[in-house]
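quick one: adenosine-5'-diphosphate bound model?
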Amino acid sequence: ATPMSIMVATGKGAAAGVLFKNAEAIETLRRVDTLVVDKTGTLTEGRPRLQEVMPTQGFAADEVLRLAASLERGSEHPLAAAIVQGAQNKGLALEPATDFQAAPGKGVTGTIAGAHVLLGNAALLSANGVGTAALAAPAEAQRAQGRTAMFLAVDGQAAGLVAVADPVKATTPEAIRQLHAEGLRIVMLTGDSETTAKAVARDLDIDEVIAGVLPDQKAQTVKRLQAEGRFVAMAGDGINDAPALAQAQVGIAMGTGTDVAMESAGVTLVKGDLRGIVRARRLSRATLRNIR
Ligand code: ADP
Ligand code: MG
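yep, here:
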């Protein structure tokens, strides 16, 4: 492409909320055949809301929520914000947590009023010797609705289940239709459970789901698709997505997401509207036509 055609594409992109970092990003985009897309904050709004709290025998729902929220006050994860907000909406008084630790892709742990508290997925609890069998069926029922289920443990005992829902962005279904019309294969990549991911993917007609991926394995997954001969664009918003954005032939960050993601990406969608990818590809093809 000529410098002039790159300038034109850059300007048209910017006017449409699509920021290209460099000429390479513009030129490469038209060759992409696979879009790998993060679920939370990319396909969805990234602002989950509390839906359900289910205690096990011997615990009260408000106590489960109060402990979960007290612990999550120390976390910056969107899931944490949903739980803290849910507790505040109920007027529950939160307590300080000490020894707070975040296990990326798994959950959070800490001490509240002398009790050892864990909140996160089944892997986190099982790594700490806590079984979740009693909550497995209700958790799966929540996931089948596209919700994310988290388990609370208190002093080595499963105390309850907290479920949140993160609405799909209003622009996502149309974006997926347009991307399919361009012949792209769309792969969802998420740290969330397979059932939750598949429930969201089914409604969106996504081609493939890769779930339960730990944050540091996202880039590895992109690499594997590339090794299969795919030409990959990766769209994401989080710190966790940054290495995968850098690994992909084209990284696409949400302007609504973290700075780290934007720094690692060749393209930023200012408003996080995935239809911008189709726009960007049109501009990419237009630069090619200009040199013919
Ligand atoms: P995503 O890919 O959706 O951004 P993550 O990789 O951050 O998800 O987390 C994967 C899973 O780990 C979550 O679905 C949740 O079950 C658990 N988890 C991660 N962080 C937290 C947290 N702060 N509180 C509770 N659970 C968490
Ligand atoms: Mg995300």
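The CA atoms of residues 74 and 100 lie 7 Å apart.
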